[in-house]
Amino acid sequence: MNNLDTESIPNEMGFRIPAEWEPHDATWIAWPRNKSDWPGKFIPIRWVYGEIIRKLIPFEKIRIIINSIDEETKVRKILSKIGIDLSYIDFFHFPTNRIWTRDYGPIFLKSNREYPEIAIVRFRFNAWSKYNDWQSDNMIPERVSRALGFRIFTATFQGQEIVLEGGAIDNNGKGTVLTTEECLLDVNCQVRNPNLDRKSLEKIFLDYLGIVNVLWLGRGISGDDTHGHIDDICRFVNQNTVILCQESNPNNENYDILEENRERLQNMRLQDGSKIEVVRLPMPEPLFFDGQRLPASYANFFIGNGVVLVPTFNDPHDRTALGILSELFPDRCVVGINSTDLVWGLGTIHCLTQQQPKI
Question: Regarding the domain delimited by 4-354, which CATH topology (the fold level of the hierarchy) does it fall under?
Fold first, then answer.
């Protein structure tokens, strides 16, 4: 079944991108298979995945992208050992290059019409304009669309397919989105859309996501392989409030980056003109692998139906970060997931998940 729509504008049809805290029907993840993403750490990663699934499954269905029936059999054995009820898991046999479902997976839309509908908007994925192996990942939105029978819109501008990763944006479900200039407007490094300026991108956000208000922060954190993804620095926690990472050490290379973003947020407004409430979230101490700084950040949390999964790093700031987020999500259980190994792959929990909204 081919539901690909290359002509229609989702916003004109009443579709919008929901906030992450709105009810999910399921969470999508891709099972890890690329050993080179975690040098020397690949075996423990499977158990980290198992823990993420174990914490989510009391609240929502899990849909796992996997390469083959043989691989599915192995994963079933792993999850059974952890005590996970496999009846709440759906397996989809789609080839992938990597596991960062947030960035290449389907971005789901929800209509506000009398008879609601879930659809997918397909942005092109090119591995953060950095790597050569992305062709299988780029096909995932279309494969999901065919599997579920959802309509899928292809995001274009003046005949050009638009490159956008899910981790580059964060929204409040009411028409405001956060992103960074470093990721989407840099014309020298990891350039996604070389012919598009700020105004053009804002029109694309309106047409394909229903976004009327774009908040442009500056740069992302040091060590971020994506060159400026927002989900490591600033996130909406409700429609009026964001958390913003804070570095307390003036000698740390992230200090000036995060302070500049704080200053920008002070002068920004939401879609209705109201001021944004900003809550500061600490940064963990720097982590390195083979001389490379890793993008360790508590902001890379995932909001599930009844739980918020937060990456932790065996760091003194873990407890503080979990406490702050617990106060911000009083209706959800806030759980830390040890991500000291996971972050060796240059991403953590939000990067590997993608929520499918519930009608």
Answer: L-arginine/glycine Amidinotransferase; Chain A (3.75.10)
